[in-house]
Design brief:
Elements: E1 7-8, H1 9-15, H2 21-29, E2 33-35, E3 38-39, E4 45-46, E5 52-54, E6 57-59, E7 71-76, E8 106-108, E9 116-122, H3 125-132, E10 140-147, H4 152-161, E11 163-165, E12 168-170, E13 174-179, E14 184-191, H5 198-205, E15 210-218, E16 221-222, E17 231-234, H6 237-247, E18 276-277
Parallel strand pairs: 9-15
Antiparallel strand pairs: 1-4, 2-3, 2-5, 5-6, 7-9, 7-17, 8-9, 10-14, 10-15, 11-12, 13-14, 15-16, 17-18
Length: 284
């Protein structure tokens, strides 16, 4: 271990896909991480020669050519949870993701049990942190169907004054009327936060129960129209680089020239992704 050479330990752990840098800093502070058998402090630097352990498990520092992150898009269905552990044994989106060696998939934002749409997964803790942390104010866009219609006063409230919820004020950045039939009405909205069930709770506070909710965009990543429910597609290296550039992450390694077998493209724009239906393992 060197105090002058190498990368900061929390950065290395985040790049290994173990979590965000903030989470890694907490692990180091809690004494869960050792380097060459010794406890370390925040700010320590490590190189490929160092032996890093988290909870006594060795973490391999990948060589530069393997450090480029992966990003996977999944069209979540209603009736799935975004968690690895569920006492009720419900179907989990993590059961359906490709298996990784020495890394793990990190969900960028969550969707509740009855919400569908775009879920983004990555192996980069840094990227996950940049897209999720409230201080970065990344846009989330949703299509929502409610029972009833917003009045002009309610539209002004959600866009200008905000709606007071139990955990604070919420405002929509944009709100578009998408029409509807009968008692149901569709809206498309955009906001810059990810509080638990914030869209549903906002409409319920206005007396309009939500009957369907779908996320269609997260930052510059759109839900591809061809990506049907229960299907996934992986971004190509150029698309991943575009996302990294957008959030301001600069890597020391170039994107891989050839995508590993099985990777497809699922750009925010015109690319046609190679898609596959998620495995049924773990669902019911």
């Amino acid at each position: 271990m060197s105090e002058q050479q190498g990368d900061r330990l929390q950065k290395v752990l985040a790049q290994a896909g173990l979590g965000s840098r903030r989470e890694m800093e907490a692990w180091i502070a809690d004494g869960r991480v050792t380097v060459n058998g010794e406890p370390v402090e925040l700010g320590a630097r490590v190189t490929a020669e160092d032996v890093i352990r988290v909870d006594h498990r060795i973490i391999n520092i990948k060589p530069p050519g393997e450090a480029f992150p992966r990003v996977l898009l999944y069209h979540k269905q209603e009736g799935e949870i975004v968690s690895r552990d569920d006492p009720e044994g419900r179907a989990s989106v993590f059961d359906k993701l490709p298996r990784l060696r020495g890394q793990k998939w990190i969900a960028i934002g969550r969707l509740d049990f009855n919400t569908s749409g775009l879920l983004v997964f990555t192996t980069s803790g840094d990227l996950a942190n940049r897209l999720m942390h409230p201080r970065f104010e990344v846009d989330r866009e949703y299509a929502v169907r409610v029972q009833g219609s917003l009045t002009d006063e309610q539209i002004r409230q959600v866009l200008k004054d905000g709606v007071e919820l139990d955990d604070g004020l919420v405002k929509f950045e944009k709100l578009m009327d998408e029409g509807g039939e009968g008692y149901n009405h569709w809206y498309r909205l955009m906001l810059r936060e990810g509080r638990n069930r914030v869209v549903r709770r906002t409409f319920e506070a206005l007396g309009l129960p939500v009957s369907r909710l779908m996320r269609v965009r997260f930052g510059i990543i759109h839900l591809p129209p061809r990506l049907k429910r229960g299907m996934m597609a992986e971004l190509g290296p150029g698309e991943v680089k575009a996302v990294l550039d957008w959030v301001g992450i600069k890597l020391d390694v170039p994107p891989p020239q050839v995508s590993p077998r099985g990777r497809g493209k699922a750009a925010a724009a015109p690319a046609r992704p190679r898609q596959r239906t998620a495995s049924k393992r773990g669902s019911r």
